[in-house]
Amino acid sequence: MARKRYQHGSVCLIGKSKDRSAGRYREEVISMDGTVRRVRREVVFGSKSELPTKRLAQRRMETVLFRINLLDYSPKA
Asked: What is the pTM of this model?
């Protein structure tokens, strides 16, 4: 069986004054009728003062995506 894709996600600044770091990624979920769908998730990591560089926010994103990028990942309901 082929390996699923490896995700890196995307990291950006959000808010009216661009003061919070957030990451976006896709996750597979099982819907009520049993089909598997990919939904887009967004996670806020913290303020720009906590994570001043994009690289630090990407490292935080890696910890979020660790579970999804495992070889034995299966979608949850």
From this structure: 0.82
